[in-house]
Amino acid sequence: MAKDQTNFSAEAQASPLTIRREAAGPYIQIRSSRGFEWTHLELPVPGVAPALDGLRIVHLTDLHCRKWWDPAYDDLIAKLKANPPDMLLFTGDFVECKYDSRPAIPTVKKLLSQLSSRLGIFAILGNHDGDLVRPRLADCGLTFLDHRRVYLHSGDATVELIGLVGVDRYDLDRPWISTLGQKQPGSLRIVLCHYPDILPKTTDLAPDLYLTGHTHGGQVAMPSRLPIMRHDTLPRHLCSGIHRAFGTVLVANRGFGFTTPLMLRLFCPAEVVEIVVKRD
Q: What was the pLDDT predicted at 29?
């Protein structure tokens, strides 16, 4: 993975990230995410509690559901049912249409109703969702985290989830962020934010993991997978992939769906990211 020149010097001393994918996805996908990539990250976290060693997190983003069912959803459901994670995290854009989410809501509900994890399913909204998506998914077993912090307990250890802005990147509440303070010793702090370029504005949070989407990895990329269009203000190479950047580990997930009018992915297959926490 390319390295951001703005990284803190301490990152040079950090343990290396182990990143692998189960199989390479197709170089082209049209209307369906069949053949999506499953990316594995081993995340070393210094001083994390022993009870969190081996914690499995699955990160999904940018489903961009429509009223029709993508057969790739069946593959995703089967994969997650075969080995349910400890935690399932979504970073927005459940639906494609920004102006009327109602046709896509049955698809989202059908998908979510078949997913589960030991510690729960947590989500923030994205810019395509609008504020009406949350009440329409109120009965889906999701816990929405927009502008919220929650603590989860796994054994005698704590996982802290912080949800930042989703629908509009300009809603970032810096005074609220300043009240969150430092993370508890031995705990795991995860930030969910739809937008990658919010990260440099929130470095005081010093999370162990920053999960984001929005860019689709460009959706159409160069053969090297470098995004052609960023949809973001971070350096191009940080808009897709897994990086040590700005004092944390940035996961810029390529997402699972397609945005219109180009229902095409080129050199940028749909992605699911699985993170396994390792005590460092």
A: 98
CA–CA separation, 183 and 246 (whole Å): 17
What gap in Å lies between CA 165 and CA 198, rounded to an integer? 9
pLDDT in tens, 165-198: 878 888 899 999 999 999 999 999 999 999 999 9
Would you call 209 helix, strand, or coil by DSSP?
strand
pLDDT value of residue 261? 82
Q: Which of 219, 225, 228, 221 is nearest to 257 (CA)?
A: 219
Between CA 145 and CA 273 the distance in angstroms is 19
Tell me: pLDDT of 162 over 60. yes
Identify the CATH number of the domain defined by range 9-279.
Answer: 3.60.21.10
Q: Where are the domains of the chain?
A: 9-279
Distance CA 123, CA 127 (A): 13
Mean pLDDT of 7-11: 49
Contact 164, 180 (CB under 8 A): no
Cα(274)–Cα(10) distance, rounded to whole angstroms?
25
Residue 140: helix, strand or coil by DSSP?
A: coil
